[in-house]
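User: Hey, my collaborator sent me this sequence without any context and asked if I could get a structure. I don't really work with proteins. Can you help?
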Amino acid sequence: MGLRETLNRMLGPARAGLLALRPAIPVPAWGNEVPRHEGMPVVRLAGSARARGERLGRLGGPQIEFLLRTYLQPFVGHGPARISFERVAGRLAEAMRPEEHAELEGVAAGAGVSLETMRLGTAFLDAHKVALCSTVVVPD
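Assistant: No problem. I've predicted the 3D structure and written it out in structure-token form, which is a compact way to encode the shape of the chain:
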């Protein structure tokens, strides 16, 4: 079974609802440096946690900026809601291991976004639990 079929099977009935959330504006394309597997971009990272994060931030910078602008900003906004999410992101950051901090700092630096925004972007779906978002990581 291919990656696409596996993901479709995992999402099940939620797939239709998630597809409805697609933005009307196009998602930036990944550059030529990033190979594809069954149409999905695959980024391989090596080195220290900071170096891995910087490479991911550099390669995925346009996508990271797009997600922060298109999903995070409208969802979190400004004012009391944002302050609440920032508190949760801070508490989640306290539980991170040093290498996780270093990797997140690297992603922020590589993508050219603030560490605070990157923390918030990383934590807001965990804090809200409304989008049923998951990450799939496959070891090399």
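In plain terms: The helical segments are 3-11, 14-20, 49-59, 61-76, 80-94, 98-111, 115-128. You can pass these tokens on to your collaborator as they are.
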